[in-house]
Amino acid sequence: MRLYLMSQDEGFVRCIDNGPHVPKETITGLVEADGTIGTDKIVVKHPDDCTPEDLEEVNKYKRAMNIMFNGIYSDMFECVMNSPTAKDVWDTIRNLYEGSKQVRENKMQLLIRQYEYFQSIPGKSLSETFSRFQKLLNGLRLHKRVYLVKDSNMKFLRSLPKEWKSTTVSIRNSYDYKDHTLDRLYGVLKTYELEM
Question: At what angle do helices 126-142 and 149-159 cross, to 10 degrees?
């Protein structure tokens, strides 16, 4: 949803993070009760004094809330409909989908463990193994854990079953496999699979 909000207007995310825009103005030259000129004072603008830019910023907040409300299921809407701010709505949605910070940390640790012990499953095809590995890498990226391309490639090659050993050794001995994307490496392996 965050990506969708940013694609509509990056100001939406700013509204969620910083709260609604409140148009303000500085009043200068205020005279104190003793007749001296006081310091400048920042006050909220009267609605009639708001510029079109001010009104646009105020409306961004409302539109961001509207997008979030329309982008969730009705049962989740019931959990957020009384949230006082867009930030509260966002945090509630995030916790409902991703869990608390502790849950997210545990998920990341689980994904790291799955990555470290990743192996192909006997009887599964190269395509199924690649899909499972790619899903694992995507999950890790969501948790801001990214591995170097060469490390991911090596991990994938080493996870393949023994029938692939001669192919993986020849690929590992090639000078440029470390520079391939995982998709390109998969393409090379798929070519070998068709020739086997």
Answer: 140
pLDDT along the chain (196 residues), means of 10: 81 84 81 73 86 88 87 87 87 81 87 95 93 95 89 92 89 78 89 80
DSSP state of 154: H
State the Cα angle at 57 between 49 and 91, rounded to 5°: 135
pTM across the whole model: 0.58
* H or E segment to which residue 43 belongs: strand 41-44
- Which amino acid does the sequence have at 71? G
Q: What is the DSSP letter of 44?
A: E
Residues in CB range of 30: below 8 A, 6 or more apart = 37, 38, 39, 40, 41
